[in-house]
Specification:
Elements (H helix, E strand, L loop, with lengths): L4 H17 L3 E2 L11 E7 L14 E4 L9 E5 L6 E8 L5 E7 L9 E7 L5 E10 L8 E5 L4 E6 L7 E6 L6 E2 L4 E4 L5 E7 L2 E6 L5 E6 L11 E3 L4 E4 L5 E8 L4 E7 L9 E6 L9 E2 L4 E4 L8 E6 L7 E6 L4 E6 L10 E4 L2 H4 L5 E8 L4
Parallel strand pairs: 1-4, 8-12, 13-17, 18-22
Antiparallel strand pairs: 2-3, 2-28, 3-4, 5-6, 6-7, 7-8, 9-10, 10-11, 11-13, 14-15, 15-16, 16-18, 19-20, 20-21, 21-23, 24-25, 25-26, 26-27
Length: 370
Amino acid sequence: MLKNPILYSAFVILSAVVGLIGCERDDSEPDLEMRKFTRLYISYEEYGTSNLGVPDTNIRVVYPADSSEFGLSLRHVSGARGGGPMLLASFADGQRRLLQASVNSGGSNDTSVYVMDVGQTGVLTNIRNGWMSNRLFTYVKGLAYSRRADMLFFVNGDGSNNSGIYGISQPRLRLGYTRPLKKYRTPGLRMWGAAYESDRLFTSNLGSNPGIFVFEEVNDTPVGADSSAVLRPARTLTIREATNLRGLFYDTVNNVLAITDFTDGRTLGSGKIFLFDNFSDLIEQEGDITPSRVITGPSTGLIQPVDVVLDTRENGVYLYVADRASRRVSRFRISDNGNVAPDKYIETTEEAYGKQATPVGLALDTRSPQ
């Protein structure tokens, strides 16, 4: 026990300083609270904003993501020149990897997807030569993985004649220059996001009649001698209320699909999260599909949501959404509907955070204690 009052005061001050510095630490130390293993990885698009040449932190972590305290606790710097969409994948050999595409904007030409090892406690480690690079990967806005086929899909849907979906076979072995096994050309299609289930790939349709493209037999569609083929959606599930769809997420455990949308990207409360229960019943439909719930309105704080993830555990409660315009990552309940305030949120504006950081991609790691 510290009986000297001067020593005690110094101890209290030192503890407070250490606590402040430790609020957001490098992602290099395991947290012993394995009973609360929910890590939310957030991809930020800033790159090269420092005059000192120091890379911007392009991944931040909320851990645990489902507790009463919801704040940034860890940080990591990948090789991406500004972060884009992310995917947490458990490969066929059991390796768990986090993949991050580059934002590829503002003159930064980075046609690579970066690969990080995810340790038993969720700590990220950059792999040596840990990138998949190809001049085709110019606009990667969606990542999905088929464990059955051991195939990783990149959605590169900019709407040009070079628009396509690229299949990378045995991705754990593909580092450095990466040649896709399958080059599906999707000329003219503007796409965002990706979700995979039972040889189907789902992406957001950013063109007219916004909705969800359903691509069938993406593992088994034959390709030519040049590894390419034209792939067209089997159908489009149109969402009448949608304007500018972006990221989507399919929770196959609870059979719920969530997809983000916004109008002008400036008006408070105009952003939307569409939720579809029993989504497998809708996949074979033609034409319009009606959401089970829509989270929208001024109380939500949504302006320009661009990505969403759900807690896929059977008792999962929360969904998480990244909003590019408000620079918020918000946590809602999956059961929420209408004009509801988020359960929690993190804001990384200049005023709130001290430095501008724009969230554009999410990945959620939920595991049972080891």
